[in-house]
Sequence to fold (652 residues):
Amino acid sequence: MSNMILEVKDLKKHFKTSRGMLHAVDGVSFSIEKGKTIGIVGESGCGKTTLGRTILRLVEPTSGEIMLEGKNITKLSRGEMKKIRKDLQIIFQDPFSSLDPRNTISQTLTEVIKVNRIRSGKQEIKNRVLELMETVGLSERLMNTYPHELDGGRRQRIGIARALAMEPKLIVCDEPVSALDVSIQAQILNLLQGLQENLKLSYVFITHDLAVVNHFANEIAVMYLGQIVEKAPTEELFNNPLHPYTQALLSAIPIPEVLEKRPQILLKGEITSPINPKDECRFANRCLHDYRECRQHNPILREVSPNHFVACFKV
Amino acid sequence: MEERKSLHDPVLEVEDLGVQFILENETINAVNDISFKLRKGHTLGFVGETGAGKTTTALALLRLVPHPGKVESKKIEVCGHEVTAMTSSQLEKYRGNDVAMIFQDPMTSLNPVFTVGQQIADSIMLHQNVTSAEAKARAEQMLELVGISANRAGEYPHQFSGGMKQRVVIAIALACNPEVLIADEPTTALDVTIQAQVLNLMKKLRDDRRMSMIMITHSLGIVADICDEVAVMYAGRIVETGTLVEVFNHTKHPYTEGLFNSLPNILNRSAKLKPIPGLMPDPSNLPVGCSFAPRCKYAGPDCTCAQPKAHWFSDTHMVACAAYQREGFAIDRPEKK
Fold:
């Protein structure tokens, strides 16, 4: 198992609310090999962002284990965690609010390097900043510009450079391109892919857009109401989606081609509340096949063919 | 469906529309000399990236361009009326009655302190001579029409989810049976499965009522799904326009090609993304020549000296690209049947 950079076992994050327990992440397990990418896909409210943050322990898990290179980091103290965070970084969705508006690019990057003592000596730090900027495709003349002077694509590049400054092994990318225009989106996706090849990075790529991850991910996990409902290698998931939710999700993606009418699976209703979910299939309310057994238990994720996991009674 | 296509008279005609925002030390050229027509029962899609001038164009059609915007045009004719000549009371009748607009964000386009039923009824009472009881009944019918049960008319916007709110907004827009519906990114704030529901609803209502529609979107996938004609906008200009098949299968403009290449397509998963290098030019400082030339791989000296002239490939298919003056020029994107 030494080849695994990250293993997540039965991870749960419940929040207390006035109306009961909100099961944001409810028993999620997956693992990633070194240098690979897992795509976590789902709609708003499915718990994917909470999952990403819980992996970094920016949000403390309720239960479950997070293993980084075989080491359990779930119970580490703050001080110990600080060392681990060098290996574990995050890129946020919104490049407009995740940067300090009062720091220039070079200040932002210098701060990270200094605080974490990655380099020392003025010249060496400056060299590292320039190196990072070059890696993410920002020209040197932008060194002293502030975030508000830059467009979304460049801001996201700073976010990436800041994550890379720590020389991480694993980066959680939380919707890194959803705030960007298509032509810029492709630039950032290609950048991330290039970095992965050169720096042997592993990614947890969180997105609502299945089309975006197909280029990238080796494996995709589809989440619905805090749980993984289907997990398979990317090709397999696109060619042979088994869970009714995955099928609906795939059929709902608008395709930029003139096509004959394609069969579309329209789901009923909307995502139900994650507060105090009943012991039944969480998708049953919207599902096209609503059997009696779907209402009696919550189906568990089981392997139906090699590496293809589905949580559905019908399959 | 057939009948919808056979009606050819334009309900909306725009000629040489320009919108400028004159600020203290700069002038922003948001929309530059665009012309287009919308036929009855057809849907025209405006595609482009942030800042291309799509929304400003739509606002100009309703004379809603905010201060200090300056609108210039030869003609903005909707349902036979010249919009620029309308008095404010005529405008009040025109907006909502002849042309209705759906905005991008359903969360902010509803009033949080009134019930949704009240908000739909208000729009009906403003335009039609009905009693409040009749308006209320109509409002409930409209809710049913967009797939919300009528007994929720007494609820407030915060009690609805994003997809439901957008349905309410659609109900308000359609309550007075407008000739033209302008939808400005109606599904951008919604999840994909909800987006599919809302788009299907819009298609159905459009076909049932033989409404004409302008669909503003940044997604070529949505255009393919819902539009009959497409106008691709870049830096305030229409760079390519034509029928859906012409623009998608016989793409001519390098920018349109770039958009297709940078888009992940689940039907062609092995294709590598080819982003368009660089950024859209600053609208306060547009180049003299073609605005796309600095990012265009086909650009030559002929592109940077003057605005490219319209080049017509058919009665409907127009491309503003100077490269077509060169002999035998073609872009790399293959033609499809």
Notes: Chain A has a mean pLDDT of 92. DSSP finds nine helices and twelve strands in chain A. The CA atoms of residues 303 and 309 of chain A lie 4 Å apart.
